Amino acid sequence: xxxxxxxxxxxxxxxxxxxxxxxxxxxxxxxxxxxxxxxxxxxxxxxxxxxxxxxxxxxxxxxxxxxxxxxxxxxxxxxxx
Length: 81
Hints:
Blueprint: H1 10-14, H2 19-25, H3 32-36, E1 42-47, H4 53-61, E2 65-71
Parallel strand pairs: 1-2
């Protein structure tokens, strides 16, 4: 499994060479075919967003998602760089 703590934000992860591998290892990756079969104008909520990786992946892979609301009450503090 690829460690997220080596990336400082979602842009650095998704622009890296490991993005496709990481994406295929996420829990929500298996939802993509099912969401794509639901028709158009899909609205959803992700609870527990953290870094936004699953939201980004779902929006990137499911063009039928028109609205995705992310909810997370934690504040992420990234140190370093």
